[in-house]
Amino acid sequence: MQRSIDEKITCRKCNKLLVANSNWTKSMVTRNNRLCRYCNIKATQNQLKDKPEYRKAQTLTKRLWKRNNRGQVNASNKLRKVNKIRRTPPWADLNAIKQIYQEAAELNKIHGPGAYHVDHIIPLQGNTVSGLHVENNLQILKAVDNIKKSNKYVQQ
Hints:
Structural class: mainly alpha
Shape: globular
Number of domains: 2
Radius of gyration: 21 Å
Helix content: 40-55%
């Protein structure tokens, strides 16, 4: 059965209403895919992420973009640094914070560069809640886990 573009259908993953030419196309309906563009992109990335040649190409693409857009990269890095300073209260124990970062650096020496990250348990700029840059809001996580967590507050 072929669906009409005017028929109201939702994405089978995120349940968002699919709007023609906005977040889905006619070909997506005829293939009976029923995924919004965002979910379709995510599905494709998940299929490719385990292929080493894909990861290498992505790394090179990102590196080239950063080299060609140095101003944007610097502005973004500076903004993050400024926001972190703003989220550090005067009563924060800076020595304890420094100790946590040093511990993460030691773990990275043992397990390889970038193996561990210092993560804010409650993100500094989360969508639902914002935390502070203080010692009891920091944790050391494996890089993979921190990337999965992203900018979200995960209650334990």
